Amino acid sequence: MKGFYINPLKKSAVLGATFGVLGFKNSIPIHHGSQGCTAFIKNIMTQHFREIVPMQSTAIFNMALIMGGYSEILEGINNVVSKSNPDTVGLITTGISQVRGDDIKYAIRQYYEKYPESNTVVIPVEVSDFNGDAETGFAEAVLSYMKEIEFAGYEDKSMMIISNFSLTCGDIDEIKSIVSSFGLNPVVIPDISESLGGSFNNYYKITPGGAEFSKIMKKPVCAVGIGHSTAPILSLLKEKGIFVKEFPTLIGLKNTDKFLDFLSELTNKLPERSILKMRGQLVDMMLDSHFYFNKKSVAIAVEPDFLYGLKSFLVDELGIQLKRGVTTYYHEDLSDIKDILVEDLFELEKDMGEIDILLSNSNGELLSEKYNKPIIKLGFPVKDEIGYPLNIFNGYRGSINLLKNVANIFLRMDEEKSYEYKNYKGVKYYESRIL
Amino acid sequence: MSMRTVLVDESCEMIGKKKASVNKCSKPTPGGALGGCAFDGAQITLLQISDALHIVHSPSTCIGCSYNNRGTRSTLGAFYRYGITTDINEIDIIMGSEKKLLNAIVNSYKIFRPKAIFVYTTCVADMTGFDLINVTKDACNILNVPVIPVDSPGFIGNKNYGNKKAGETLLNYVIGTKEPEYTTDTDIGIIADYNIAGELWRILPYFDELGIRVLSKITGDASYDEIAYAHRSRCNMVVCSRALVSLAKSLKAKYGTEYFEGSFYGIAATSEAIRRFGYILGNGELNSKIDKFVESKERETLDKLKPYMNYFRGKKVFIYSGGVKSWSMVMQLEELGFEVIGSGIRKSSSEDIERLRRHFEGKQKILMEKGDGEMLLKILINNKADLFIAGSRNMYVSIKGRFPYVDVNQERIKAYAGYEGIVTLAEDIYHTMTSKVWRSTEIIPKFMEKL
Fold first, then answer.
1. Which residues contact B295 (CB under 8 A, 6 or more apart)?
2. CB neighbours of residue B222 within 10 Å
C-alpha cells in the first residue's frame, strides 16, 4: 500500500448513485454539492453513453457553505420541478454536504411544506465521495428508492431484477429477453437501458425511460439480485415479504445455466429453442478456442461484481491465468483469488510485462500503450469506443461476445509469433504472406 | 483567502455595474448550473506543464475518473495524462490529512522524478482546515524541487475563476524564478493556448520561419523551466482572452511585457496575430518578412479552400461555443463562405461580446448567453440551419435534431488553428454535411409502418 492512488480505478459513490437514479423513469439526480461535482460526473457519463445525461446541482457556493441552511436545496429542487416536472428526484449528497453534516431528509420535508402542490417524490440518497465506491453508491441509491416503496397485492407474472453498477444497457436487455422468454414480465430496477441505452428520440431534460417508480407496488413472484452488491437491497425486500434470490454473476456457461435452471423451476417451463441453440454455440466456441489459451494470462481491473464474473468465466471455465486483479473494495466473493488488490491502475505496471491482455476501462490505455499490450475495454468509463453500453457480457450471448474478443487477440498473437520464426525483418506478417 | 477577495472577482466585468448584475455574475443558479468548478479551471490551465506532476488532495469525485481527459498533446512527457489523488476518506477528515498529502507528494516524487509538483486543494480538503502552504513548504524542503500550492477549491467560483487563480499561482510561485540561457530581441510568449490536438505545433513553424523565438508557451506543451523564465518574453499574445488575460496584465505591470489578445482561428485572425507581433517587436526588416510570409500563406490557403467554399456559400450555421471562440469561430466560418445565424457568448468577456456586436452591426443576429439543448434546437430549426458548431457536450443535441455537427471544444481530436487548420476544418465540415448517414437513417422500413 502506497497510501495514495496514481490513476485510480475507483469511482466515487456519488457517481454510482447518479447511475442508479438515472435508471428510473422521468427522474433526475440532483447533487447536493458544489457545481464541479456534477460537471465532472456529467462530462464523463456523456462521453461514456454518448447520450444526453440529465443531472443537476444545488451548486453550493461560498456564502451558502459558510452560512448553512437549505435554501439552495429547496431552490434547486423547485427549479428542476417547475421546469421539467419529474416523477422522482434523487437528491444525492456529496463530500461537501456530508462533511458539513446536512440533514437532507429534513430539507426534503421543508421542501414539501413549502411546495405542497408538487407531485414529485424527492428521494434522499445519502452517499459521499470519501466512502465506498461506485458499486456501493449505486446499491445505496437503489436501496433509498426501495425504502420508499410499499408492497401490497400480488402480481403473479412479474419478476423483479435488481441490477448492479457494471451491468451494461446491453446486459439488461439480454437478461430481460431471457426472463420474458419464460413468460414472466421482467421489472429491472434500476433500468439504465431504457434511459441511457440510446434511441432516436427527441431532446429530453429528465430520463425518458427506466424503471417506473410508484409508492405502492404489487409484490412480484420473486426478486433476483445480480451481483453481490445487491445483497442489502435483497435483504430489505426479504423483510418486506418477497421471495429473493442472489446470483453473483450471469457471465459464463455455468452461471447462465444456474439462472436458467432457476427460471425453469419457477415457471415449470423449458428454455426456448433459440436459447438452447446459443448454449450449443457457446460450448462449441469454448472448445474451438481453448487451443489458444495455453500459457496466456490477463490482468483485470474493474469493480468487484464484474471482476467476479469475468474471473469465473475466463479463469474458472476457460483456464486463462489471472496474473493480477485490481478492484475498488474488498468483497468476500473474491477471497479465493489470491492475486487481488484493492488498488489503482498504476499497480498493474509491475505485471504488464508478463500479461497478454489487459481488461480495464479507457484509462488502461496508458498501460496498454506503454507496454504495447492489447486492451479489451470494459467497465466505466469507456469513452473512446462507440457503442460500449450496448456490449453484452451476461448470458450465453454475452459470454460468446467476450470469448470471441479474447480468443481472437490470442489467436493473432500466436499467428504473429509463428511468423517471427521465419525472421522477416521489418516485414509484417500479412505482407510476408503475400511474398 | 478572505471572503472579500473571493467575491470581488476582477475577471468579472459585471463589477462596478448594477448591483443585480454582480449577483448574476458571481453566483451560480442552483438547479441551473452545469459548468466546471474553480478546481477544474485551475487544473486545466496548469496540467499541460507536463514535466511537472499534478497531485490532487481530494476525495474520489474530483479526479476519480476525470483524469486523462484532455485533448492536449506534449513532447515532454505524459504526466498530464496521470491523475494522482490522495483519495481522502472519512478517517482523514476526522483525524486530518496533512501527513497523507505529504506522503503522497514525497512518494510520487520518488516514482516519477518530476521537475516540479503542483498540489491542488479541493472543497472537502479545504473544509478540514488543512494548511496547504505549509505542507508544500515541507515537501519542498524534503525533496528540493519546487512544490507549488494551487489554492483553488471548487466552491470559490466557476471554471473561469479557476483559470485566473492558476494564473496567479504561476505569477506568485513560478514566473521569475529562473533565467533563460540567452535572450534575443524577438523572444515572445503565447498565453492560454493549451496545444489541444497539437494545434500549437501547427503555429510554431510560422515563427521558426520568421526567425521569431517562442520563449514561453503558457501552458501548451510547456516545460516547467520555460514558465519559470516567461518574464523574459518581450511580447505576449493571449489566445483565449477571458481565461488568462489577468496574467498578461500582471506580467505587464510587474515586468513591462507588452501583450495583445488574438486568435489563430481563421486566415484573417492568424495573419493579424503574426503582424501584431511584428509591430510590437518593432523591427522593420521583420515586418517586411512577415508581410511576404502572410501573403503567400493566405494565397496558398485560399487555393486549397476553393472547392469547399463553392459548396459552403450561403449555407447557414449556428455556433454555440464560449469565450474567445464565440467571435473567432464566426470570422473563420464567414471566411469559408457560411452565413452565420448567430453565436453563443457564454464565458465570453465584454470585449469579446463588443467585438461580435460591432461585427454584426445592422444585421439581425442571435447572441445567446445561456441556453439548454431545447433552446439550441429551436434556433436551429427556426432558422433552418445547415450546420451546427459546438462543444462535445451539445453534440447529442445536434444528433437528435439531425443537424450536421463539428466539435470545436477541448475534447476535439483535430487541430483547426492556423492556415492549415482552416483547411482541416473545411474538410471536416464538408464531410459531415455531405454524409450519407443523414439520408439513410431517415428511411423507415415497411415493418415499422405496420406496427
1. none
2. 25
Check CB contact under 8 Å for B107 and A3: yes
Q: How far apart are CA A359 and CA A350, in angstroms?
A: 16
Please judge whether A58 and B31 are an interchain contact, meaning their C-beta atoms are less than 8 angstroms apart: yes
Residue B443 pLDDT: 76
User: B339 - beta bridge partners?
Assistant: B316
| Cross-chain Cβ contact B127/A60 below 8 Å | no
297-356 of A, contacting B, C-beta below 8 A = none
CA dist B25 and A66 (Å) reads 20
pLDDT in tens, A276-306: 899 989 988 888 888 788 788 999 999 999 9
**Look-up: residue for cell 410499499?**
A150
Please give the full DSSP string across A63-105, using - where no structure is assigned: HHHHH--SHHHHHHHHHHHHHH--SEEEEEE-HHHHHHT--HH
How many beta carbons lie within 10 A of that of residue B200, not counting itself? Answer: 26
Q: From the CA of B389, how many Å to the nearest CA of chain A?
A: 17
- Using the beta-carbon criterion (under 8 Å), do B84 and A4 form an inter-chain contact? yes
Does the distance separating the beta carbons of A40 and B62 come in below 8 Å? yes
Collapsing DSSP to helix, strand or coil, B406 comes out as strand
Q: Which of A9, A37, A79, A129 to mutate to test the interface with B (most CBs of B within 10 A)?
A: A129
pLDDT for res A150:
93
The DSSP result for B207-248, as a single string, is HHHHT-EEEEEEETTB-HHHHHTGGG-SEEEESSHHHHHHHH
Q: Quick: pLDDT tens for A100-142.
A: 888 999 999 999 999 999 999 999 999 988 889 999 999 999 9
Q: Give the global pTM.
A: 0.83
What ipTM is given for this predicted complex?
A: 0.77
Cβ within 8 Å, pair A39-B39? no
| Chain B positions in Cβ-Cβ contact with residue A73 (cut-off 8 Å) | 30
Indicate the pLDDT class of residue B356, thresholds 50, 70 and 90.
Answer: confident
d(CA B387, CA B432): 9
Surface of A (134-193) touching B: CB under 8 A: none
pLDDT of B5 above 50: no
Distance of CA B43 to the CA centre of its chain: 11
Which ranges constitute the DSSP H helices of A244-394? 253-267, 273-289, 304-310, 349-352, 365-370
Question: How does residue B17 score in pLDDT terms, banded at 50, 70 and 90?
Answer: very low
A383: which chain B residues are within 8 Å (Cβ-Cβ)? 69
Burial class (CB in 10 A: 0-12, 13-18, 19+), B343: buried
Whether A120 and chain B come into contact, CB under 8 Å, resolves to no
B210 Cβ contact list (under 8 Å, min separation 6): B274, B286, B289, B290, B293
Averaged pLDDT, B65-88: 85
Question: In A, residues 363-402, which contact B (CB 8 Å cutoff)?
Answer: 363, 365-366, 380-381, 383
Residue B267 main-chain phi, psi, to 5 deg: -65, -50
Please classify residue B213 by burial: count the beta carbons closer than 10 Å to its beta carbon, then call 0-12 exposed, 13-18 middle and 19+ buried: middle
Q: In this predicted structure, which of A397-406, B23-32, B255-264, B406-415 has the lowest mean pLDDT?
A: B23-32
What's the per-residue H, E or C state across B258-326? EEEECCCCCHHHHHHHHHHHHHHHCCHHHHHHHHHHHHHHHHHHHHHHHHHHHHHCCCEEEEECCCCHH
Beta bridge partners of B320: B390
Interface contact flag, B36 A40, Cβ < 8 Å: yes
pLDDT at B7: 43
Residue A181 burial by Cβ neighbours in a 10 Å radius (0-12, 13-18, 19+): middle
Q: How far is B449 from chain A (nearest CA, A)?
A: 16
Residue numbers in A near B322 (CB within 8 A): none
Tell me how close the Cα of B128 comes to any Cα of chain A, in angstroms: 9
Cell of A321: 491465468
